[in-house]
Amino acid sequence: MEEELLLLLNLQLLQLLLLKKRKKTRERKRSVWVRPIFDVSRRIGQGPYLNLMKELIISNDVIMFANYVRMTPESWNCLLGKVFNKLEKSTTNMRIPISPAERLCVTIRYLADGKTQKSLMYEHRHGHSTTVGITTETMTAIIDALKDDYLPNLSTENMKEVANYFYSRWNLPNCCGAIDGKHIQEVAPYKSGSTYYNYKNFFSIVLMAVCDADYKFTFVDTGAPGSRSDGGVFSDTQFARDLDSGAFRLPPDAFLPGSTTLFPNFIVGDEAFPLKSYIMRPYPGQYLDHQKRVFNYRLSRARRIIENCFGILAAKWRIFFTPIHTSLEKVNLIVMSCVSLHNFLRVDSDGGDGVTVITARYINVGDADQGDEDNGQWRNVPAPTDT
């Protein structure tokens, strides 16, 4: 009985001590609301957005502006207008909110330069959790604002336009797109084992995509583990299931140019994809006759468009040059926001009229492979040394 009473008294004493400690913790005032280096006055006075961006605009240095944020001032204003309402925060008595323009600048630099969010924290003078929140919210806003106009759902009509353009630019009739997979390098997900470890000896997720003849993505699926093959990843996409079931159909069979032969419309891929009525792959083997070699040449020439798409995407958004250290959900968010920005800038900055000569454009002459040579400038972009 005495032991039980003594135990009860000890428990009550412990509860009183904990209660007293909590009360002191509640009464303790913050020494500062925000660290001095992140104070709004320092950010306005020394942060890169209101200083560097302002200097670039005032000096009318379009080339350096485009190098900094991967777009011209006109495209920047257009994009800012699309996401402004989604990023605007109301002013409170405690602090001045970070403007939508600065939020967009932080996120674009995160994607374009491949820096860690801790590096951005010091560069833009925001707290780490603030920086993480800004990039996540802004990427979500970018995807929501651009997906309907710049990553539309596939339809038979726009596939017809793609096929016509493929023939006029790359001399391959009935081709409705080029397909391939790209490994997005990431730090090993928690408790994932070897699920995301690929044949290239790093951890990744697979970006499966189809593009048109003008370096724009028409279909994107992301998130599959890097250990899977391209053919297996594609077969599990909704697009492949719809093609197999007939829920989605490519344009009707069309006559080959200069002949009376009806031939199906198709998507071109490499040897990793199965041969189907809607997927065309090259003839296997080395000892082929002349006709088969000519066919493989034409097919490979068209298929290289998707390789160039991936190369330009990574060259412009250099976050893909280093392992991405974040959750799988945010890696998918990064991929989709970069793809959306790629298509937006391909249309808005370049006018969708082929590779342009103006050096401030998103894709310039020489960025993509020209003719039959692997000479696109995206192949020569060095990986960043400071992350």
From TrEMBL:
Q: Where is this region: Disordered?
A: 368-387
Q: Which GO terms describe its molecular function?
A: hydrolase activity; metal ion binding; nuclease activity
The family database entries (InterPro entries) matched by this protein are listed as:
HARBI1-like (IPR045249), HARBI1_dom (IPR027806)
Which compartments does it reside in? Nucleus
What is the required cofactor set for this protein? a divalent metal cation
Keywords, alphabetical:
Hydrolase, Metal-binding, Nuclease, Nucleus
One GO CC annotation? nucleus
Domain DDE Tnp4 spans what residues?
179-343
PANTHER family from the UniProt entry? NUCLEASE HARBI1-LIKE PROTEIN, PTHR22930
Q: Which family does it belong to?
A: Belongs to the HARBI1 family.
Q: What is this protein called?
A: DDE Tnp4 domain-containing protein
Please name the source species.
Answer: Artemia franciscana (Brine shrimp)
**Taxonomy of the source species:** Eukaryota, Metazoa, Ecdysozoa, Arthropoda, Crustacea
